[in-house]
Predict the structure.
Amino acid sequence: MTLYDKIKALYPELTDSDFLSTIRLQNDSDGKGDYIAAWDHPTLTRPTEEQLA
Amino acid sequence: MSSIAMQGGATGSGTVTLLAPVTNTNRTINLPDSNGTVLTTATAGVPVNGPAFSAYNNATQSISSGTFVKILFQTEEFDTNSNFASSTFTPTVAGYYQVTGCASIAAAGATLFITSIYKNGAEYKRGNDFRGVTLSQAQQFNTALVYCNGSTDYIDIYGYNSGVTPVVGSGSAVTYFQAALVRSAT
């Protein structure tokens, strides 16, 4: 399951628009994988590492 | 027959020297029949022989959905100043660069494909997108003018899509990254 899938499972209400504005998932193709580059959603809190594990 | 008149400056004490190249061949320099100022390599704003490169993705790249992923460009077509490495362009000449990125991405059921130009690790200019139209494959193009300081600034291309098990297509015609200096910083 990708980081995107895990976040969508936690917050099904999120849409593409959210991931193109207030939430940014990123992968720099450096072998470190996907990560949350920015989380500025006005109402939903950033998931914890435990929630994403 | 027309003639050439040499005239010194009204003020100043410097000497301008016209230096012949080291050659055993006679050469002719044709002057334009118009008024103007001769440009040199040191003239402000003139990008003489500035950096330019072109590279493409030569192997399909699996990426995550809903995520901006750096696109890999493993093969160089040209790189005039050796400023392209590890899929990143880091020009060593300060100035304004026309940057182009194109990525072919295949993904089942996708409604969104984007190619974005990143500067120094952050999104800088986002290209157009196919929004609301379900597609299994799209080729996204993006171009922008980007200032680079000639030392630390660097440029990458990232791709984004909303489909299932997305894959970036390979080939010089479909997934490529190019840039060239169009105006120097001075």
Notes: The radius of gyration of chain B is 23 Å. DSSP finds no helices and 13 strands in chain B.
